[in-house]
From TrEMBL:
GO terms for cellular component: mitochondrion. Belongs to the class-III pyridoxal-phosphate-dependent aminotransferase family. Keywords: Aminotransferase, Mitochondrion, Photorespiration, Pyridoxal phosphate, Transferase, Transit peptide. This is alanine--glyoxylate transaminase. GO terms for molecular function: alanine-glyoxylate transaminase activity; pyridoxal phosphate binding. Homotetramer. PANTHER family: ALANINE--GLYOXYLATE AMINOTRANSFERASE 2, MITOCHONDRIAL, PTHR45688. Pfam families: Aminotran_3. It comes from the Eukaryota. Its cofactor is pyridoxal 5'-phosphate.
């Protein structure tokens, strides 16, 4: 194949200037196999970021690839105006993974589309317009979801008149530490003094992803959901990153907070790399769309449905939830050991294989170690490791590998961090 330089040159010539790359010299990926990626020279990298938390079961997982291939030979597309069994089989399997009355599924093609639809449902169901999301949130790149997104690093969030951003309960950087009730009070105050009292919905990630792997203070969502429901709004969980067993003991991120949302949105890991997203809600909320048409040309097409169904099967068959809990707790303890040794590690957080490592130049002041993080990112790449980076200050490593990531892989990553941090 072409060299990395040639690939980059063509992108510069024909693709938009908003593309951004990791690494001074971007990695040119030609092949993926489970938790590994390979560049054009055949060099192998351990993938700790899974194509931005998307390749849930592993690159080109054989059972999922086979399911996609077989379906693509029989019927690739028909749209929902005709009958085909794949979409129903997939919806049934997905609904079986949801708690409570969350049994009605809509398929779309991405996280942004899922959140757009969730927002529409919340507004139609309540008859209200005002949406509430958390600061530091990322909910998508479409015009409506850009309003929900609250990250100035994006540079072009489109302010929406009816969206309010409230304090995110960040135990490390937030002013109230892990005291969920104080952040909940901020939400209540916003509703009381900042809205017109016509709240349609509240949307939150349980683990803020792009915002820097922030795990919401324990108990926050329970308090927040109560407040929002009392104000007449519905509660939306954005599970685009945290779903499908990644957090270990639970299948969904919201379970770690002991809540049941009214609407759940998902994408990324649902398709192991296929363009696929979904919204799951209750029959009551779904009924607001009953006399209307909610149409999506590609949503739940036979190939994506066959692939998505295979993903659910693989997660169960390979016991990925238990695996994420086991490997995650091993990796967390390795990272906490490193924290004792390396001053630069300000915070180790997360659950399962949904982890964050926040780097600071000063433990007390928590000064973001932005340049050091960028430097370490390059060093890890030299050692054959690709990892995620995020947060408002670009000083958080995001560790969210394919869920086949092993204890040995965790040790390899911890050793590489130890080695490269020792050389800082
Ligand atoms: N929600 C969350 C939590 C996300 O991380 C993302 C993507 N990074 C989205 C929504 C938007 O998904 P997509 O890029 O598929 O539109």
């Amino acid at each position: 194949g072409p060299s990395a330089d040639e690939v980059l040159e063509k992108r510069k010539q024909f693709l938009g200037p908003s593309l951004f790359y990791y690494y001074q010299k971007p990695v040119n990926i030609v092949e993926g196999k489970m938790q590994y990626l390979f560049d054009e020279s055949g060099r192998r990298y351990l993938d700790c970021f899974a194509g931005i938390v998307t390749v849930s079961c592993g690159h080109c997982h054989p059972e999922i690839s086979d399911a996609i291939m077989e379906q693509s030979k029989i019927l690739q597309h028909a749209t929902t105006i005709y009958l085909h069994h794949a979409i129903g089989d997939f919806a049934e399997a997905l609904a079986s993974k949801m708690p409570g009355n969350l049994k009605v599924v809509y398929f779309v093609n991405s996280g942004s589309e899922a959140n757009e639809l969730a927002m529409l449902m919340a507004r139609l169901y309540t008859g209200n317009l005002e949406m509430i999301s958390l600061r530091n949130a990322y909910h998508g790149g479409s015009s409506g979801t850009l309003g929900l997104t609250a990250l100035n690093t994006w540079k072009y969030s489109i302010p929406q008149g009816e969206v309010h951003h409230v304090m995110n309960p960040d135990p490390y950087r937030g002013p109230f530490g892990s005291d969920a009730s104080k952040y909940a009070k901020d939400l209540q105050d916003h509703i009381d003094y900042g809205t017109c009292g016509r709240v349609a919905g509240f949307i939150a990630e349980t683990f803020q992803g792009a915002g820097g792997a922030v795990e919401l203070a324990p108990g926050y969502l329970k308090l927040a959901y109560d407040i929002v429901r009392k104000a007449g709004g519905v509660c939306i969980a954005d599970e685009v990153q945290s779903g499908f067993g990644r957090t270990g003991g639970c299948y969904w991120g919201f379970e770690t907070q002991g809540v049941i949302p009214d609407i759940v949105t998902m994408a990324k890991g649902i398709g192991n790399g296929l363009p696929l997203g979904a919204v799951v809600t209750t029959p009551e909320i779904a009924s607001v769309l009953a006399q209307k048409i909610q149409f999506n040309t590609f949503g739940g097409n036979p190939v994506c449905s066959a692939g998505g169904l295979a993903v659910l099967r693989v997660i169960d068959k390979e016991k990925r939830q238990a695996h994420c809990a086991d490997v995650g707790s091993h990796l967390i303890s390795r990272l906490k050991e490193l924290q004792q040794k390396h001053e630069i590690i300000g915070d180790v957080r997360g659950k399962g294989l949904m982890l964050g490592l926040e780097l600071v130049t000063d433990q007390k002041e928590k000064t973001p170690a932005k340049a050091e993080t960028a430097h370490l990112l390059e060093k890890l790449r030299e050692l054959g490791i690709l990892i995620g980076k995020g947060g408002l200050h670009g000083n958080v490593f995001r560790i969210k590998p394919p869920m086949c990531f092993s204890r040995d892989d965790a040790d390899f990553l911890a050793d590489a961090l130890d080695y490269s941090m020792s050389k800082l």
